[in-house]
Amino acid sequence: MNTVRTKFYRDKINGKWLGVCSGIADYTGLDVLWVRLGFVVATLCGLGFVPVIYILLGIFANAKPYGLYTDAREEKFWQGVRQSPTRTSREVRAQFREIDRRLAEVEAFYVSSNPRLANEIEQLR
């Protein structure tokens, strides 16, 4: 598994102050607005450790590397891996099974319309 894409990073590019909330949003796949609201509500509710944790994460967490994802689809995939690796591996296996099924259909189409090709494939087996 690619550990670079499964680590938590501060997202200073999309962040407002230290990039902690946007990093959490990127890591979990949540909308950054909800993460920020959660931090504000937790702080206003008297949870004094929340700002301390925010500042510590802002100081000690690594900044998100530039070009970590090539596109939004890849970003969504890695968020899914972080949320549920088992579900993601099931989805990838299902996609491979679908590709295998479609290739079998293509092979069956060409073999059924080309007896010479069918004989060559049978000789290879």
Question: Could you walk me through the main structural features you see in this protein, from its secondary elements to its overall organization?
Answer:
By secondary structure, this protein is mainly α. Helix content is 68%, strand content 0%. Helix 1 crosses helix 2, helix 4 crosses helix 5 and helix 5 packs across helix 6. The mean pLDDT is 83.
Order of helices and strands: HHHHHH
Which structural class fits the helix and strand makeup?
mainly alpha
Distance linking N and C termini: 35 Å
Shape: rod-shaped
Main beta-sheet annotation: none
Q: What's the helix count?
A: 6
User: Could you give the count of β-strands?
Assistant: 0
Poorly predicted spans: none
Helix content: 55-70%
Beta-strand share of residues: under 5%
Average pLDDT confidence is 83
Radius of gyration: 24 Å
